[in-house]
Amino acid sequence: MKRRSRKKGKFRKISVLVISGIIIILLISVLRMEKAVRPMAEMQSRQAARLTANKIISETVADYISENNYTYSDFAVVLYDNSGRTASIEALSENINRVQSELTSEINNNLSESGEASAKISLGSLSGSYLLSGRGPEVKIKICPAGDASVKLRSSFDSAGINQTRHRIYAEISADFISSIPLYSFETEENFELLLAETIIVGDVPDYSVKAWSS
Question: For the residues 154-168, what does the mean pLDDT come to?
Answer without folding.
Answer: 84
